[in-house]
Carbamoyltransferase
Amino acid sequence: MSYTIGLATTFHDPAIAIIGPDGEVLFAEATERYLQYKRAPNCEPDSAPRMEGLLKRYIPEDAEVRIATSWGEDFTGFLDQMARAGSFTLDALLKLSPELNRSLVPERTERALIASLHAAQQRAGMGVLLGLDRAYGKANVTGLTRYGHHLSHAAYACWSSPFDNAACLVVDGMGETGASAIFALEHGKLREVKRHRGRESIGFYFGLVTDLAGFDQAKGEEWKIMGLAPYGKTDPELMALLRKLYSIEGHKLSFAKADVVQAVAAEILAKRPADALDQGWADLARCGQDVFAEMMEALLAEAAALVPSENLVMAGGCALNSSFNGKIAGRHGFKTVFVPSAPADDGNAIGAAWLAHAEANPDWRAPKGPLSPYLGSTVSTEPFERMQLWEKRLRKLAPDEIAPVTAKLLTEGKLIGWVQGRAEFGPRALGNRSIIADPRPADAKDILNAKVKYREAFRPFAPSILAEHAADWFENYQDAPYMERTLTWKEAVRDRVPAVVHEDATGRLQSVTAERNPRYHALISAFHELTGVPVILNTSFNIMGKPILHTAEDAILMFYTSGLDALVIDDWLLVK
């Protein structure tokens, strides 16, 4: 009866995972959902009040508990040495330059991030310990084990994949020694093949482009670059400037020195249009995405050379670049590409927990994936029980009525908040915490942006499509269970679903099957029966700048204060 609690303890995107005695993921959720604080920077993943409830729900009183986290022992010890040397004090930070350095972030900012990372490692597990005291008056904890950051990425991504053998490429902003690594998955076991060393970081590069284009990487606005890029054109001068930031020799990716980085950034800023802070800079977004692809191609070629395989697993924050992900299959010898639902640092909560479980159980093998993304909290419908006393527009339907009734509302042009079952683990709403709409009206995107999401008009909305029909709608169709890649719509169908066809004729699709999500599949099937279209528009149930909702109260508040026309939570329906 040994349970494992995994903690993602970077300075951004903290998360918690609970693994059962057999290695099953019982619960996994990013801290931002519980706190309703976007990306939850510098927040602990395991606050004691939060842990008390989770422990009572998922772990028996007398069970043994092990704790695992996602930054290695050697690196954590190095951070301890830096702290003892005074490197993280305010006085030490004041002495550093606020200018960009070779890492493509300001020198002071980089040190402050590392200081925050150190603080997170210092407090890792304290909330679990205090939560056990609160829940049971005792803490049967065997200790805390630390695992490499990129190893944790690889463990979660590979062991949640459908593969027994694959090449694995991890690319993010920073790790213990560098910002990328290559692993081999061999008969279910992981082997590190190459760990890049140095400060070269494609993740920090993309963050710099985000800032230069008029957005803010600290707010997690890298997504806007991907959405805006198709509206831009390739500018030879911008491409030449961005290419000064890096060089590729063979498979080695190197970045320029600090003075070159500063000069390039200054020259790009001098060219930035005056309205970029309001509208973004489409041409830079396009060029930035294209250069990102050039750098990623170098790493993919290296991974293919070192671990020849038809299967590729992608992990790390850069694996969230869905525009690039959809272009990988069929190149470098990779026929099939898998990206998990939470490839960024939140996924390391599962990765670290699985590594600890595997260490304690050497014969354990992860069950064949893809892993279900529906691992988070449920939403209580108790508020509706109270509301029905005064809200006459609220009614509870029979379970088999929900799909056809909701589908009919969609055909009438209603914007619907849709909340079912357990929350998705990762940044995408996959039909359990979604706002849904009819994709056929050409103005549906503009209406949804204006009435509900309150976000920039250029940002696209995603299609959820019945997997059994997807090959008829997308060119070179690939299964996409987690909305992790964009594919090109077939030309003949684009005018049938204009609200989910992006400027470059792509869509960041979610392949929906009855096995993965029975109720969501039933909803789209009912819509298909009414319209002949096996697609609905799907976007996350939030407004710009806020995380996806966490409670029924969050959903109810957004229903009454936005342009949503209907709210469906489990079997409850509320219509304006």
About this structure: The chain is about 35% helix and 20% strand. The longest helix spans residues 282-306. The mean pLDDT is 96.
